[in-house]
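for ur thesis appendix - Pheromone binding protein 3. copy paste whatever u need, i formatted it the way the template wanted (i think)
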Amino acid sequence: MLRVSAVILLASFALSLGRSLAASTASSSQDKSAKPTDEEDSKDVKASADSQDDKTASEEAASGEVTELMTAMSECNETFRIEMGYIHTLHETGSFPDETDRTPKCFVRCVLEKTGIASEDGQYSPEQVALVFPGERGGRVMDDIPELAKPCTDRKETCKCERAYKFINCVIEAEIKEYESS
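the 3d part is after this line
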């Protein structure tokens, strides 16, 4: 059963992107390291957001954050089209399958700005990361997301899209190291 809680990647956008992005990508049968096929290309974030209508009582508790995240993902996907396979890969590995493609990185920037994780001038809020992307990884509840995200906030990239992607990449990799390695 899909569990929606307040998703990643990024991406991932995954800060990990926690359970929220994992839930929104669970329906993807995409191989983690492969590029999406033509059939999977048609499964975009908006379609995934539209399929999140059925919720259990426990999922309703996080409904505000989930709604905000899914709305942001849907709105950003209208401008920066991204396949669910990309988000799934970001959540699982911390990286996009094709790191030369700027569109998914700009999608991440858009989502982070719309959810209040990033300001328009590129400042990041570790506390907001925890509110938008709580969840678990490796079967363990991630209760220290602000501490994991804090070292990732000082970004030097000049491109806002690249900066957002590197931020989320840093957070997800820290989560993977902390929760899947130990």
